[in-house]
Specification:
Distance between the termini: 30 Å
CATH class of the largest domain: Alpha Beta
Strand order of the largest sheet: 5-6-7-9-8
Number of domains: 2
CATH superfamily of the largest domain: NADH Oxidase
Largest sheet: 5 strands, mixed
Oligomer: single chain
CATH topology of the largest domain: NADH Oxidase
Shape: globular
Strand content: 15-25%
Bound molecules: flavin mononucleotide
Length: 269
């Protein structure tokens, strides 16, 4: 399965078959995780955690036997970096038939933090179960998906703009950026809130966070993790179109709507 296919087929999986994660799949994911860098150059330590040995679980997940968790030093852009690298792992897992769900809230956080031996200067923003999707979703999972309208996304022209925030960009006018922007649109986000916005200015695409949620904790912003996911979907798709991965933090100073914060720019040349 290609990255583009993985982006289209991935859904959160909360009901697993009960089959243990096969050692060869665990090995592939662990090896891939070592290579899953991010444009911020921030290192992240990934750990696969056996639920039988650790007693870890999530109240919304059934039938799993393994979780993956990542921890990193607190640093500027840690959230975007975490989102970027973890989504690369999620898409890799999807490509080998292993289901995942990003989990930031529905877990016993202190038990997970203990299991990864989190240090005082580190954060462990999210975890995910790893396993094989069950044939049928649990009732709880179906209700959760309905609750957050998990199968729908905001329209293209509601989140992407042509040169300025008051000029919606249609899919038809997006030109060479269409595949990468569409990949952003399809990305997963916390409570499916889709905080990403992008303004296309010729050979640059400026990304912004439209904050719709209160900051989850005092020290990190969960919607910046969503932004990292969006940047990963954009860059991975641009790469398949023969474009380089080329991000910079260089605010163009465009007028922005309320609660909207500049995050990063993808620049050709
Ligand atoms: C950063 C982040 C945190 C999330 N946290 C949770 C969580 O705590 N519990 C949960 O059940 N789903 C969680 N999700 C999954 C989202 O609800 C899900 O991605 C969204 O509803 C879209 O559905 P889809 O992933 O099937 O496309 C999280 C997703 C992201 C990106």
């Amino acid at each position: 399965m290609t990255t583009a296919e993985a982006i289209r087929s991935r859904r959160s999986v909360r009901t697993f078959s009960g089959e243990a994660l096969r050692p060869e799949d665990a090995q592939k994911i662990a090896a891939f995780a070592e290579t899953a860098d991010n444009p911020y150059g921030l290192p992240i330590t990934w750990m696969l955690l056996d639920t039988k040995k650790t007693g870890l679980s999530s109240p919304v997940i059934v039938g799993e036997d393994t979780f993956i968790a990542g921890k990193m030093r607190r640093a500027p852009h840690a959230e975007e970096a975490f989102g970027y690298s973890f989504e690369r792992i999620v898409l890799f897992a999807e490509s080998i038939g292993v289901g995942t769900t990003w989990i930031a809230g529905t877990m016993d956080r202190s038990a997970f933090e203990k299991a990864v031996s989190l240090a005082a200067d580190e954060v462990m923003p999210c975890v995910s179960p790893l396993g094989y999707p069950a044939k049928k979703k649990s009732v709880r999972e179906s209700l959760m998906r309905k609750g957050v309208k998990a199968d729908s996304r905001l329209a293209f022209s509601k989140v992407f703009f042509d040169g300025a925030f008051d000029r919606p960009l249609s899919r038809e006018n997006a030109g060479k950026w269409e595949p990468a922007l569409e990949a952003v649109r399809l990305a997963p986000s916390a409570v499916n809130r889709q905080p990403w916005r992008a303004v296309v200015c010729a050979d640059r695409v400026h990304f912004y966070e439209k904050r719709t949620a209160a900051r989850a904790g005092a020290d990190w912003d969960i919607q910046k993790i969503d932004m990292g996911i969006a940047l990963a979907h954009f860059a991975l798709t641009a790469q398949t179109c023969g474009l380089p991965v080329s991000f910079r933090t260089e605010d163009p100073g465009l007028p922005v709507p309320a609660n909207t914060e500049y995050i990063a720019t993808y620049a050709l040349g």
